[in-house]
Each structure stands twice: as structure tokens, then as C-alpha cells.
Amino acid sequence: MLDRILLTTTQQPQLRLAKQLIIWGWTANQVTLLGFLIGLTALPLLAFEQYYFALGVILLNRLLDGLDGTIARLTRISDRGGFLDIVLDFLFYSTIPLGFALANPSENALAAAVLIYSFVGTGSSFLAFAIFAAKRQLSSPVYPHKSFYYLGGLTEATETILVFVLMCLFPTWFSVFAYGFASLCLLSTVLRIYTAWKNFVD
């Protein structure tokens, strides 16, 4: 729900950073890969309970995730880049609850499993809708710059990162945040299924 607000707010700073990276010779795909590799370091940091360092890594990953799309729009949008971006995003999202599970298995493992399960619901409904929207040549009026149909929901990227920030700031409350956000993810999945059922009429 908050993605559009964040995109509008950060558009100009991201544009300036993206232009500088282009001058330095960086491509969108290189920034995507760099962001993902940096994001993966959150796993050992969380496992060893270095929550503030993990928070910094998470925020840096998200900054680079925004920059890669801006660079692509300034240079060339490609299917390869769009595919790489979305796959690595979903892998990164699941890395965070896994890290908390490793940090404290007895307290966090079940909540982490439930949260990752809910990510499967949001991710699969999101991508399945995009597949059939492309088949029907539909375009998103909300996110026309995306390389595929971007269906919004209750739990988009901004909400996910806000929850990750809260988890890192208050790690003893991880289970509460995880179960609460998993509930919202599952509700978002149900709403996306309903949207698809209404739109994809044979």
C-alpha cells in the first residue's frame, strides 16, 4: 500500500544517484547483483545476533534495489533484468526470517516458518497474476514503468521492509511481528486470488 508514496518521495534522490552510477559505468544488472550479495550478509549477521549491522545491510539492499530500476529506466529496460530483480528480491525477503530462526531456533523457528510460508502465498499470487496479465496484454495503470504487471496489495515491499526494521530494532518481539505480518500477507494473497478470479474470466 505504501510503495507508491515511497517511490514518489525518493524519486529525485534516486534519480541523482542513478545518474552518477551510470557515469561510473554501473549497469542495472550489476547493481541488482551487488544489492543481493550485500543483502545475503544479513543472514550471518542475524544468526549471530548483530541486529543493528543487519539493519544497515537490509536498508542498503533496498537502496540498491530502487537504484537498479532507476538505472534501467534511464538506460534500457530488459526482460533479463526484470526477471533477475524479482527473483533475487523474493530470495532476499526469505533470508531475513531465516536469519532470525538461526539466531534463536527455540523461540523464532516456527514464527519464521509461518512468515516464509506467507511469503510463498504473496509471491506466487503476485507472479501468477503477472503471467496471465501478460498473456492478456494487460498493463498496470498504477506501476506502468515496471517490466511486468505489478499487482499491489496490503503487504508490498515498503511494508515488508518496515517490519524487518522493527524486527531488528526489537528482536525479542520477532515472533509477534512475524505472526502479525504473516496474517496480513495471507490476507493479501486471498485478495489477489479474488482479484484474479474477477479479472481472468474465460
From TrEMBL:
Keywords: Membrane, Transferase, Transmembrane, Transmembrane helix. It comes from Thiothrix eikelboomii. One of its GO terms (biological process) is phospholipid biosynthetic process. The chain crosses the membrane at residues 21-45, 83-103, 109-135, 147-167, 173-194. The keyword Membrane applies. This is Phosphatidylglycerophosphate synthase. GO terms for cellular component: membrane. The keyword Transmembrane applies.
